[in-house]
## 1
Amino acid sequence: MFEQIAQSIPYQHISVGGINISIKRLDLVHPYISGNKFFKLKYNLLTAQKQGYKKLLTFGGAYSNHIAATAYAAQLFGFESLGIIRGEELASKALNTTLNTAQQFGMQLQFVTREAYRQKQSLGYLAQLQQDYPDYYVIPEGGTNSLAIQGCQEILNKQDCENFDLICCAVGTGGTITGLIEASHPQQQVLGFSALKGDFLAREIQQLTHKTNWKITDQYCCGGYAKTTPELLQFIRTFEHQHQIPLEQIYTGKMLLGLTDLIQQGTFPKDHRILVIHSGGLQGRLAAL
Ligand SMILES: *Cc1c(COP(=O)(O)O)cnc(C)c1O
């Protein structure tokens, strides 16, 4: 099933500022478990299955596409799932679309304080978790671990590595871009548009790959994770209208805003062959966009 999906991803070709861009539409793989999350989960689910686990546990914020995708994939593969969600105050509020989607796919949600959530990678917390949930297979926040990176390498096929000079993607935790970097040809450049402010991501990715043909910019993060600007929202509306490709405001909108700006600044030669990974995330698209 995973193989079938990887082979059937369509490309769409558009022109931006006189440069031809190919968009790999991972958003079309599925309306919920869209795009990159599917590749990130692949080897985690196969491993959990092989090791005999029946339940999955993972972490996320209220807008985490990873939470929604894990809920869906867990149900599809017959796992029970538990999501540990940042923000105790959310427990008493109506669920947003992302969390509602997760719950509909059978995920049990547990809300924890921001302080508790911050501990999620500490050894003490993980040991406690292991004690509290001994029969759960634990997937880290955003789904990023070495199995996720292995899965994300499969986003690129042979042609993608031969036919393009530049590969662009949106960056959250850095798992997806690390897979793309690992799979890329050394003469290709991989450019990541961060959805978050800060340069800590570049340092983390340096720990995960020895290759150097990549760069990350946070110049188009619009103030930070899940933040938006009127300019971003207007860009998304115009882009969707022009190209009939849906975007959302957390990841893919910021990536294409950034790429369009770089093209308009004359950053790339006119014959530059650019591949854009549309990673999906459309279940989190603002309805009022
Ligand atoms: C999660 C997500 C990303 C970021 O992936 P990372 O591996 O966390 O960097 C990009 N785009 C979309 C639509 C996502 O849901």
## 2
Amino acid sequence: MSTMSDKALKYVPTTCPYCGVGCGLNLVVSDGKLVGVEPYKRSPINEGKLCPKGMTCWEHVQSPDRLTKPKIKKNGKFVDASWDEAIDLIVKKFTEIYKQHGPKALGFQTSCRTVNEDCYALQKFARCAFLTNNVDNCARICHGPSVAGLSLSFGSGAATNPFEDVLNSDLLLIWGSNAVEAHPLAGRRIMQAKQKGIPIVVVDPRYSATARLADKWVRFNPSTHIALANNMMYYIIKEGLEDKAFIAERTKGFDDLKAMVQKYADATNIHGVPQETVKEIARQYATAKNAVIIYCLGITELTTGTDNVRSMGNLSLVTGNIGRPGVGVNPLRGQNNVQGACDMGAYPNVFAGYQAVAVPENRAKHEKAWFLKEGSLPDWYGSTLTEQINDAGTVVKAMYFMGLNPTVSYPDSNHVRQQLEKLDFCVMQDIFWNESCDYADVVLPGTCFAEKDGTFTSGERRVNRVRKAVDGPGESKYDWEIISMLAKKMGLKGFDWKSAKDVWDDMRAVTPGQFGVTYEKMEKPESVHWPCPTIEHPGTPILHIGKFSAADGKGTMFGLEYRPPAEVADAQYPFTLMTGRVIFHYHTRTQTDRAAQLHYEVPESYIQINTEDAKKLGIQEREKIKVSSRRGEIETLARVTDDVAPGVLYMAMHFHKGANTLTNTALDPLSKMPELKHCAVKVEKIAEAK
Ligand SMILES: Nc1nc2c(c(=O)[nH]1)N[C@H]1C(S)=C(S)[C@@H](COP(=O)(O)OP(=O)(O)OC[C@H]3O[C@@H](n4cnc5c(=O)[nH]c(N)nc54)[C@H](O)[C@@H]3O)O[C@H]1N2
Ligand SMILES: Nc1nc2c(c(=O)[nH]1)N[C@H]1C(S)=C(S)[C@@H](COP(=O)(O)OP(=O)(O)OC[C@H]3O[C@@H](n4cnc5c(=O)[nH]c(N)nc54)[C@H](O)[C@@H]3O)O[C@H]1N2
Ligand code: SF4
Ligand SMILES: [Mo]
């Protein structure tokens, strides 16, 4: 029976489960149930403010649709199972497949939605139990090119400066980021910068909510970033605006860059921006005392993603806009814990803290700490998420997905479904029955952010505490706890954690860059930014001061050629489809569609089409239309607007049987990022508007 005191409101300070801004908020609990969200004003990130997703983040937690019991597919039907039965089956199947086909036949995917502790646990399990580096996370289809590109340019794949540092800048160059909708509380910092009179240039093919804030909006042809950046650098060098002292002291590769950009003296035929405008923004960026680049998926989700990111690196290095307050290159990391999932070693070539698996000392250290035989850990580059799905049924026989929904979020959904069906065995560990669970053999109930302790690492490398407010539903378990059950069943040592803090301390012991990030230090609302190597260390909000993170301490410029996307519009498929987000939904909507107000705002999918194109095709506002590509077709509603240029369409990625039925799986060779933001489609009218 509940008592009066149970009913008293309890406030549990924690971190928002949606985007990588990492806003602080209070979950309000009454009688063991969530009843709302209240501002957490002590968080220096959002100072008590929240966006519509943060305000409603408690609603899905108590949905009756939550997974409450393990389920096993028997004779084509899912039935409830006990934890013992589910764990036994997974261990049996993975072990059989491992014995028959070896470590490369298994694939493990950690979520960027779960806490760091869950991510560390799953990659440790994959490496210890099956001696495989086939571990990855959905950063692969998000900021994988940022990790690859910024590592090549600066020696570290992370954002260089904190969000609020834009207020120390003299120019914001926002490129392929719609922060106002996708990172609203970072968007608030941009608005504050505007109020301070700091000029804002937005480079985007679409007149986005963020472009509406700009002093100058530069529309360019989709996916022509390298041509535009090279053209800008041509003027910077021609006019002698490069930072000669910085280039001489701190960088290499300038001659390659200089030679390459001569070819882009006038690239308007590629990017579509008049030369006067290119010259103007080049001068503005190069002559501002402190200029910062903020970019996002417009840059990364293309087959040229890594080179697009390196182009942003080039711009900052050639002008010396890096390594102090008010400057830098900041990818706005997407998911609540996409930074953390990568930091935790859920990556095919590194352990936690980006310690390369190829280095023998790193393997030896982990073998010792993880109670493994000397020389047992693999040195090979594991297979990525995109490769694992493409190789399903051939090389890869079994996959473990913790918190991903690939049949909606991954390109070419028809292909994904076919691939998942080819697996001998598939596990989905989620909090809801998402569209991909139908393709699993076992579905396991994890707990969500409000039901567990742990940490999320935000896009500015700040490690924020997540605190348990309520119990998980039914027989659900902490995600790391499920992994430890699997490991213990297999007789592995080193998985006997009693709490999330135990898992975190296990990680700290093998990860020098985060050794000083303790739970105790995270009690402060401002917490700590890694790198933080010792207990006394204050953390590192700004990277690359005085020296880059690369082995030789230098930043590297690259001469990069523009390459067109893998599939471009033609006579048969005359439109370019760009994809992205809306403020009210988060990814595949398992959570946001269960918040009444968010569902009400955007209940179904739509596509933006230019006014002239709509007129030519006889399409009216909100009319149902058919959109098809070489891979599939969908029905959706037309939104007629001049926000997109003629020949260009824009669709949010959130809906099942939506944008990803159409998109292309062609990969960026360096980061294995698929071309989620560019494919060719055709549009047909199918019905008159009501
Ligand atoms: N509301 C909401 N917020 C989110 C998320 C969400 O699902 N919903 N997801 C989070 C995650 S994981 C991420 S990674 C971030 C993403 O954050 P963003 O990358 O900012 O969001 P997007 O809307 O995907 O894309 C941004 C912009 O890229 C533009 N763009 C610029 N250049 C190009 C180009 O050359 N080609 C194409 N095709 N487009 C270009 C598009 O016009 C679009 O406005 O958002 C995070 N925040
Ligand atoms: N066309 C197109 N496609 C895109 C994009 C695009 O811009 N355009 N963006 C891409 C990007 S940037 C990203 S990041 C991906 C996102 O792709 P996904 O990560 O596949 O998408 P989510 O909907 O976030 O799925 C995460 C799953 O985790 C579950 N979950 C949430 N919290 C927990 C937890 O604590 N534990 C467990 N076990 N499960 C949990 C949710 O219920 C959900 O089913 O989509 C990509 N797809
Ligand atoms: S800006 Fe991001 S972290 Fe902040 S409340 Fe909105 S979704 Fe949550
Ligand atoms: Mo993302």
## 3
Amino acid sequence: MVSFRKLGLLPLVVTPVIGSPMQLERRNSTDKAPRNKVIIDNDYLAGQWDPYLLALNAGWEVLGLTTCTGNTWMPQQAKHALAMLEYGNLSCIPVYTGALYPLVSTYERFHSWEAVHGDLPWQGAFAPYNATLEAEGWDPSGGSDPYRIVQAAFTEGFPTAAAQSSPGAVQFMIDQVHKYPGQVSIFAAGPMTNVALAIRTDPEFASLAKELVIEGGKIDVNLFQFNLLFDPEAAKIVLNANFPRILVSGNVANSVFATDEWIDEVAADGTAAVSMVDPSIVLNSTTFFIDVDVAYASPNYGNVHAYQKALAPPNLRNITYVLQINETRFKNTLKSIYQKPITCADLS
Ligand SMILES: *[C@@H]1O[C@H](CO)[C@@H](O)[C@H](O)[C@H]1NC(C)=O
Ligand SMILES: *[C@@H]1O[C@H](CO)[C@@H](O)[C@H](O)[C@H]1NC(C)=O
Ligand SMILES: *[C@@H]1O[C@H](CO)[C@@H](O)[C@H](O)[C@H]1NC(C)=O
Ligand SMILES: *[C@@H]1O[C@H](CO)[C@@H](O)[C@H](O)[C@H]1NC(C)=O
Ligand SMILES: *[C@@H]1O[C@H](CO)[C@@H](O)[C@H](O)[C@H]1NC(C)=O
Ligand SMILES: *[C@@H]1O[C@H](CO)[C@@H](O)[C@H](O)[C@H]1NC(C)=O
């Protein structure tokens, strides 16, 4: 059901693009203007390179990668993040460990909800433990040991470095928005536990960030609501917080790349990232007010409710929701980042 779980190593070199590939402008090191900065918070699996490669390619500074449990347990994901950086010669970007558990949800609570309302198509770390699958190279799941590392899942290579736990992801995010007020985009590609903890730890966190960016297949497609369903309480805290701007990329690229399977598989992460770094790629967007259902007994637990202004309850935030991007340009940009990926040598 979930193809990205078995997503292997992406080619770092792909066939040249016909015509002139649109390449986002690379950083000009003599340029003194403050660089755009981003922290990418994700539940990393093998192969999820495109958000940080797109950001780097556009001249953005990737301050760090932060991880929290979602697709699999956080310790395994932190190692995936490290391994992908090592493979891409990008180990100058630090990785920070984050939340091991969702705010309220537990393995048992999650499955009790499913027993009443039906199974979700993707359960991530909360999928029942399956020794056969793990032996085949699937990432660990199950309720007993969140620290278990399954080496067979590292198609991108097993990392030699360790993630940083002091400060952890939450304090790192808080420190960075204070260091660079109004300049740091928070790119939330996984469950929003770390971001929620940062908001609850520091009342200034959200307002000091530049914006929150969310990949939006997560919101309008059943499968990808996983990120909200895995930690609904965190998602509500985050989407109700006073970020100056919340950008959500809709399910804009799902049917576009049927002939380019590998692009199709990364497109969900990429549309949000490319809309963040290259706003002019957005051809159509809309604005509405948003909330997350946190009634555990509800069949809509963890689902989004959207409102127009006149009907919205007080204190909700409006989001900019991307409906359409320039697909030609997106495809060319995605290819160009893999043709000549940025490495730490380019960043020094
Ligand atoms: C970098 O910026 C400087 C000053 O704006 C400019 O003179 C120079 O041509 C730029 N270099 C590149 C490679 O764009
Ligand atoms: C990383 O560096 C190694 C050794 O210099 C090189 O062989 C490899 O092609 C580099 N990988 C990338 C993605 O640049
Ligand atoms: C483990 O996964 C395999 C492959 O999907 C499946 O055939 C098997 O029934 C699963 N085992 C358990 C105990 O769920
Ligand atoms: C949504 O918020 C933005 C600021 O982020 C504001 O400019 C815009 O007017 C708001 N839209 C509505 C419909 O309130
Ligand atoms: C933007 O998308 C909406 C919803 O799909 C559609 O009704 C509208 O015509 C689109 N606008 C443009 C300029 O394409
Ligand atoms: C989309 O991007 C391509 C390549 O950059 C460009 O030629 C085309 O005019 C753009 N289309 C729109 C509708 O902006």
## 4
Amino acid sequence: MPINNYGINIWGDANYIIEDSEVTLNHLSKPSLLSIVNEIRQSGLRGPIILRFPHLIQKQIETLYTTFRRSIQEVNYKGEFKAVFPLKVNQFPQVVEAITTHGKAFNYGLEAGSKAELILAMSQTSSGAPITVNGFKDTEMISLGFMAAQMGHNITLTIEGLAELESIVEVSKACNLKIPSIGIRLRLHSSGSGVWAKSGGSDAKFGLSATELLEAINLLRENDLLDYFHMVHFHIGSQMEDITPLKRALREAGNIYAELKKMGAEKLHAINIGGGLAIEYAQHSADRLRTYTIEEFSNDVVFLLGDIMNKKGVEHPDIFTESGRFIVASHAVLITPVLELFSQDHQEKSLRIKESNPPLIEELLELNKLVNAKNSIEYLHDALDHMESLFTLFDLGYIDLQDRSNAEILVHVIIKKALRLSKGYPTTELEKLQIRLQEHYLINASIFQSLPDYWGLGQRFPIMPLHKLDEPALRSANLWDITCDSDGEIGFSSSSPLYLHDVDLDEEEYFLGFFNVGAYQETLGMNHNLFSHPTECSVIIGKEGYSIENIDEASSLLKVIASLGYDETQILIQLKNSLARSTFITEEEKSDTLQKLELYLYQNSYLRTTN
Ligand SMILES: *Cc1c(COP(=O)(O)O)cnc(C)c1O
């Protein structure tokens, strides 16, 4: 039995289990994450690694479709369920390939929000699968939509404002290309919940108000385009933690749909409910985020829409979703070696008590000896007070460095004893002290590159060691990344702590996994301090074993520098010349140094020492 399962039962969705003290995939041959990582590192690769598991993408796609199809069957809903994957959530080729491969059976399509994403969608979607296009569009982007239609794609351009509709009219008049389907994004007065809930609401960045909708219908009719108007769309925001706002939006959008049908939008046949299906990231039950299941979500959508249409005597529309986070969040794990532990825990064994000590040190020794459950808080305050005085004495030159070190150690030991003795009486002061005693684990990764939503939004991700799960993890931890930025830190409060193992990194390696990082983190991540996208690969798990595919190593130092616009060759020449001109070493040493330098330049920018 694992001593601490790190909430794997809360966030893990049965994708992982703990077996033989390691995190193991709960699929077919059940390899452990550590065995996969070790195999990749055998080739000499170092630094953080993103492991992708396409079977988890497949699982999510299947879950989405089967759940909606079941709801549809249960209430005898007449429309069909359709879905597209919003590329902005993860555009990396290995991810898009898994999506198009496993989505084929369902005719799963892609959603694009920019010209580049539209080109990706046009080139990656299997023919017949839907493409939807959201976001602001210029005439060029609209022309691209016409080209896609001409190429045979089932594409819908969702307009965000009247000006875009005018551009569609303009392009349709200017060319003979096939006309794409037209969608209209609704500006609803109901809005979402959670950190990302800025997409809905009447002050939202996107969508048409009721008045604009009426104008749009007129414009379409006047230009003989009304028959191309096929879809209404809304999106109330990402990571929707509660279902109530969605229900409100569905009622509003459903009624708008029915009204539009009655107004003569005969070919209108689909409601696109956007994305927003949430993922559970919490590691402690008290922090749970999502308050509904996918079954509840799909039942609500299907039932509510059916109910509105029945009441208004309108045919049931097809239901489109654009959930992205739900599809890809779970497929990726970031694995980072721990490079160092910065012990805040001053050990009593390092004390070097002198024959004769300053009186305040003698007092600290007494406090340490006599601290008990009754006096712990009082003694703790005395100790902190003495430490301040001792620091002042040191600044004034009255005590030496050994005295100062002894003071630091004694005070830390007293704090630890006081914390232990006063358990059950948590005060804010004690909580703050507890955090001061946290061990800092240095991880070989950049939070800015790999967990930008933690940096920007305080979004938590599940974190746990990949191994040693049969040993007690007693160190209250705090994580530091390797950027030179004080924001490159993941802190933990005493109410939701992370406990890690006490490891001697000279003796053994220690790996942490950051889970559910497959949505948004990768293209949002930035090269702060010039740490680039980590090494990535896909792992295909079979009945007998697994295979590691498409290992794509993090960019080399030179490539990272070149990506900023520097000339690689120029840099290389400059470094070589400087070395050649240097003095006091032999030609042989120069050539050895040059060889080493060249090796470094072609390695990735993450640290290689120890791990
Ligand atoms: C971002 C976005 C989505 C995806 O949202 P998720 O929360 O990832 O499901 C869907 N549709 C639109 C229009 C979006 O902007």
